[in-house]
Amino acid sequence: MVQNRKIPQRKCVITNEMKPKKDLIRVVRNKDGDVFVDPTGKKNGRGAYVSSDLDVIAKAEKTNALGQQLNTTIDPSIYEALKQTVQGKQHEK
Question: Which residue range forms the structural domain that includes residue 23?
Fold first, then answer.
């Protein structure tokens, strides 16, 4: 008998949709206050998940929702890294 493994679900901080963790991109703020994109989803720190969709990332940038979630200011380079990650994922499909 094959046991179905539970797929971890996470909520996108922009759309509030629950999605499988692997369909989202994690942004982390560590205890030093550094913010970075975490493609592995395993780095230490406060994490916020964003849907891998360019429209959602544009909305995140406009509303500063990530900054509010992580209690810090988000550098524009983080949004650029998110966009690059999304474009990279689209090429894999």
Answer: 9-92
Strand partners, 11: 18
User: Quick check: is 2 in a domain?
Assistant: no
Q: How far is CA 52 from CA 1, 2, 11, 89, in A?
A: 34, 30, 12, 8
Nearest-10 Cα torsion for 58, 29, 18, 79: 10
Cα–Cα distance for residue pair 93/80, rounded to 1 Å: 21
- Please list the pLDDT of the chain residue by residue as tens digits (93 residues): 567 888 899 999 999 999 999 999 999 999 999 999 998 899 999 999 999 999 999 999 999 999 999 999 999 999 999 999 998 876 665
